[in-house]
Amino acid sequence: MAQNPVQIFGTKKSKGARAAERFFKERGVKIHYVDLTQRPLAKGELTRFVQKFGLNALLDMEGKAYRDAGLEYLRVTDDRLLEKMLQDPGLLRLPLVRGGKVLAVGEDAAAKAAWAEMVQ
């Protein structure tokens, strides 16, 4: 079992964040849930995920926030996009999960495999 708590960054509206929370609770893993609507993600924390997955992997291009921000039509620098993601958690593909040095984004099969690695 993971000795340190797993951090889940999400919002209460995020189906994926709720699924991650349930996954870890069912396995008796202590979690630290960070609601991004209450406490914004730190730039350093987001940068850690960007370095591993790339900026586009973190961007929820299917979401309402992406459309509302007009990002499908705008050309923005990576730095500006990072700032927008920090300001609006709706732009992020959630959940962002960190267990020790293992990081995961979203709730797809690869993310769930990473979650399983966190509980070993």
TrEMBL record:
State the name under which the record lists this protein: Arsenate reductase like protein
Xref: PROSITE patterns: ARSC
Q: InterPro entries per the record?
A: Arsenate_reductase-like, Thioredoxin-like_sf
The record, for SUPFAM superfamilies, names: Thioredoxin-like
**Residue span of the signal peptide, if any?**
none
Family per record: Belongs to the ArsC family.
From which source organism is this entry? Deinococcus proteolyticus (strain ATCC 35074 / DSM 20540 / JCM 6276 / NBRC 101906 / NCIMB 13154 / VKM Ac-1939 / CCM 2703 / MRP)
Q: Which Gene3D superfamilies match?
A: Glutaredoxin
